[in-house]
Design brief:
The structure holds two protein chains of two kinds. Chain A is an alpha/beta fold. Chain A is built from 17 helices and 22 strands. Among the domains of chain A are: 128 residues, Succinate dehydrogenase/fumarate reductase flavoprotein, catalytic domain (Flavocytochrome C3, Chain A, domain 1, Alpha-Beta Complex), CATH 3.90.700; 107 residues, Up-down Bundle (Methane Monooxygenase Hydroxylase, Chain G, domain 1). In chain A, strand 16 and strand 17 form a beta hairpin. The longest helix of chain A has 25 residues. The termini of chain B are far apart. In chain B, the strands form two sheets. A five-stranded mixed sheet of chain B has the order 2-1-5-3-4, covered by helices on one side. In chain B, strands 6-7 form a two-stranded antiparallel ribbon. Chain B has two domains: 101 residues, Beta-grasp domain (Ubiquitin-like (UB roll), Roll); 126 residues, Orthogonal Bundle (Fumarate Reductase Iron-sulfur Protein, Chain B, domain 2), CATH 1.10.1060. Classes of the chains: A alpha/beta, B alpha+beta. Chains A and B meet through helix 3, helix 4, helix 11 and helix 14 of A and helix 1 and helix 4 of B.
């Protein structure tokens, strides 16, 4: 067979989770990494502020506190066994990254530097704690580079610029994937005993987003078409501080270093919404507060943005009011040079895209679609589970943002995504390799590329008058307005109707590029199809959940409803219709209580 | 404002040789050149091909020559060009595959040739290895590299001889040579002390000018040259 490859383990995606999985799987199993981008282009590289681990390098901290903060941050929807596992593994995982060569910023005594982040607290005082281990404001970049470097050192097999388009499931187990080699347009069959999806998020559904063009939900869409449900898709995080209109992320680390949000009246409004931790409340809380401020006419000049102020005089003023101290007990005071050294990329982004120097001027920001809490359901070993009883599908794994363990529940804490990547990427890799040692290859179907070919021939042969560019923009607009920070039944019904209309219109796009070599137009149309299907699943899951919890805030159901909704949503894509089911949340130590910051 | 885009086009499946296509588009002064390329692809010609991902200067996908200078299309704002005429061409020195997409493999092969990973076989401590703020600062600048190839493909020495390892690979080597935790600096210096190594650099500074991360590339190359000359890593 032409273009046929065989590996014990195939990893789809080369961001933090995929590379970590590949590093571990390749120790004992033949492993290939397939990525639609060069690995170093992956979206992990854009993560800025830090990776969470209770090292206690700056002040007292404990994995147990990290666990509780994450449970609380999740609005009690996270599975507590998995959260505890992650937060205890975190410490060793971060040391391991350091041993791999990751150039963390350092403390005066040479240890890994840490800074405060939203929702991470000292569980005794309730005050912010320095738990985010950082490398300036390019922590994700350094994780991505370091893991790629280690993969090169360990001779991992890379298939760069291979777009995976289908997963093969035979006898109820993973059998491999189908990929298009972008440089040739050829379809390839990768026969594997174990397949690990690590394809990232799908924030490109929304108009204002921090997410890369490549974040089109390929992994979740691919497995969903093959009968795997998606979990908790109604929970999508809107990060409070995206650059106005562009959505580019301004790290929460800015507020960790003492920056504050300011409204049109010059007020530090977060004091009203989160009296204890203020600007370092968790992201859902801050984004909602910003919307409420803007709705009440206190956006800057009445517009849909607010200011993020990290000018040293502002930082020092509020640090003094808050009584913030340095580790040695002296008052917390910063200079412009220190901020520049700790947040160089933020300064660069503000100068480039806003024409603003953040050391002397305030930055216009608005909430930006940032992170998928939902995704492919897995257990804490990265094994994909396919029903209400958590039945494992043999040979299928997922890790990172495309997966839902669930450690983030209804709202992820900052720094826990990088942590999720390294902890669950590693364990998915280990489990997949272990499984492949005792398993046989599944027999491939007679025509393994049939389903993928059907999808791509339909796109290639389309000859209508619609533009995918326009369809994409209409989706982003309606989803940002109606399935965004605040939601209502009426608005979401409107969005659902629109998304269904757009799915029909996508079948009538104008004739695309007919070439084979780097046919990015056909790929982009397929990716848009993924986004539209995930937008529909998101909206239907959100319509059904008649409560507010974490990132899912319904104006018509403003309260959390534990009696009816302390459960995970599962959504199946059933011949173009979405079918919902539910499974319980794992609660071990922490009984749900009201969430106050 | 109205801008006039002139874009390098080459499709190996139909074209015998490259040509340029012209488009007039309405642009906001704060638009990125990448936004204009997306607009052209989405509305005028879907076959226009280029790489992009993060769209804010971090992933390194969209290095191209914009009005003759190597830039990331997502970091180049229309208003910064100071003209309404925008010429977009692929970066030089790597084979063109289609339109603005070049074959990056020779570039990554050079990167891999300098052992771009931490080498230290001593058993690590239970916690982190210690490194002072000063030791960490020593190689800070070169950790910023995003492997976009803007530097290497702006270098006349690289254009003259593609066997030259190029600025980006030297930057990658520098990042490890000057890392106090690494133990293979001497080996990397030996690799770069080759006829296609650092001495191909004639301090033209194109690389430094082209770097979208503002890395002092020429300075880093100079430090590697000095380490080879003196046999000391400091």
């Amino acid at each position: 067979m032409n273009n046929y490859h065989q590996f014990d383990v195939v990893v789809v995606g080369a961001g933090g989770a995929g590379l970590m999985a590949a590093l571990y799987a390749s120790k004992t199993a033949s492993t290939a990494v397939l990525s639609k981008l060069y690995p170093t282009r992956s979206h992990t590289g854009t993560a800025q502020g830090g990776v969470g681990a209770a090292l206690g390098n700056i002040e007292e901290d404990h994995p147990e506190w990290h666990t509780f903060d994450t449970v609380k941050g999740s609005d009690y929807l996270g599975d507590q066994d998995a959260i505890e596992f992650m937060c205890y593994e975190a410490v060793q995982a971060v040391y391991e990254l350091e041993h791999y060569g990751l150039p963390f910023s350092r403390t005066a005594d040479g240890r890994i530097a840490q800074r405060p982040f939203g929702g991470h607290t000292n569980n005794v005082t309730g005050k912010p704690v320095s738990r985010a281990c950082y490398a300036a404001d390019r922590t994700g970049h350094m994780i991505l580079q370091t893991l790629y470097q280690q993969c090169l050192k360990n001779n991992v097999n890379f298939f760069d610029e291979y777009q995976v388009v289908d997963v093969l499931i035979e006898n109820g187990a993973a059998a491999g994937v189908i990929a298009i080699e972008l440089a040739s347009g050829e379809m390839h069959v990768f026969h594997a005993k174990a397949v690990i999806f690590a394809t990232g998020g799908h924030g490109r559904i929304w108009e204002i987003t921090s997410n890369a063009y490549s974040f089109t939900g390929d992994g979740p869409a691919i497995v969903m078409r093959r009968g795997v449900p998606l979990e908790d898709m109604e929970f999508f995080q809107f990060h409070p501080t995206g650059i106005y209109r562009l959505g580019i992320l301004i790290t929460e680390g800015v507020r960790g270093e003492g920056g504050v949000l300011i409204n049109d009246k010059g007020e530090r409004f977060m004091e009203k919404y989160a009296p204890t931790v203020k600007d370092l409340a968790s992201r859902d809380v801050v984004s909602r507060a910003m919307y409420l401020e803007m709705r009440e006419g206190r956006g800057i000049g009445g517009k849909r943005y607010l200011y993020l102020d990290m000018r040293p005089e502002t930082v020092n003023k509020y640090a003094a009011l808050d009584g913030r101290k340095r580790p040695d007990g002296s008052p917390y005071v910063v200079t412009g040079e220190e901020l520049l050294a700790k947040l160089p990329d933020i300064v660069d982004f503000a100068r480039t895209y806003l024409g603003v120097d953040p050391v002397t001027q305030m930055m216009p920001v608005q909430p930006t679609a940032h992170y998928a809490m939902g995704g492919i359901p897995t257990n804490k070993y990265g094994e994909v589970v396919i029903d209400e009883k958590n039945t494992v599908m043999p040979g299928l794994y997922a890790a990172g943002e495309c997966a839902c363990v669930s450690v983030h529940g209804a709202n992820r804490l900052g720094t826990n995504s990088l942590l999720d990547l390294i902890v669950f990427g590693k364990h998915a890799g280990l489990r997949a390799a272990e499984y492949s040692q005792g398993a046989d290859f599944q027999k491939l179907p007679a025509d393994p590329t049939e389903f993928a070919r059907q999808q791509f021939e339909a796109i290639r042969n389309s000859d209508g008058d619609e533009k995918a560019y326009v369809i994409g923009n209409e989706m982003k607009s309606v989803m940002f307005d109606e399935v965004g920070v605040f939601r209502t039944e009426q608005g979401m019904n409107l969005a659902l109707e629109k998304v269904r209309e757009l799915r029909e219109r996508l079948k009538r796009v104008r004739r695309p590029d007919q070439g084979k070599i780097f046919n990015t137009e056909v790929i982009n149309i397929w990716e848009l199809g993924n986004l539209l299907e995930l937008a529909e699943v998101t909206t239907i899951s959100a319509l059904a959940r008649t409560e507010s919890r974490g990132g899912h805030a319904r104006e018509d159901y403003p309260k959390r409803d534990d009696a009816n909704w302390l459960k995970h949503t599962l959504a199946w894509w059933d011949h173009g219709q979405v079918r919902l089911g539910y499974k319980p949340v794992v609660i071990t130590k922490y009984q749900p209580k009201e969430r106050v910051y | 404002m109205q801008v006039k885009l002139k874009i390098f086009r080459y499709n190996p499946e139909v074209d015998k040789k490259p040509h340029y296509d012209k488009y007039e588009v309405e642009a906001d002064p704060t638009d990125r050149v990448l936004d204009l390329l997306e607009y052209v692809k989405g509305n005028f010609d879907g076959t226009l091909s280029f790489r992009r991902s993060c769209a804010h200067g971090i992933c390194g996908s969209d290095a191209m020559r914009i009005n003759g200078r190597n830039r990331l299309a997502c970091k180049m704002l229309v208003k910064e060009l100071g003209t309404d005429k925008i010429l977009v061409e692929p970066i030089l020195g790597l084979p063109v595959i289609k339109d603005l997409i070049v074959d990056m493999e020779p570039f990554f092969a050079n990167y891999r040739s300098v052992l771009p990973y931490l080498i230290n076989d001593e058993p690590p401590p239970k916690k982190e290895r210690l490194q002072s703020i000063e030791e960490r600062e020593r190689f800070d600048d070169t950790t910023k590299c995003i492997l976009c190839a803007c530097c290497t493909t702006s270098c006349p020495s690289y254009w003259a001889n593609e066997q030259y390892v190029g600025p980006a690979a030297i930057v990658a080597a520098h990042r490890f040579i000057f890392d106090s935790r690494d133990r293979a600096g001497a080996e990397r210096l030996r690799i770069l002390n080759d006829q296609f190594g650092v001495y191909r650099c004639h301090t033209i500074f194109n690389c430094t000018e082209a770097c979208p991360r503002e890395i002092q590339v020429t300075k880093a190359i100079g430090e590697v040259k000095r380490a080879i000359a003196t046999g000391k890593i400091e």
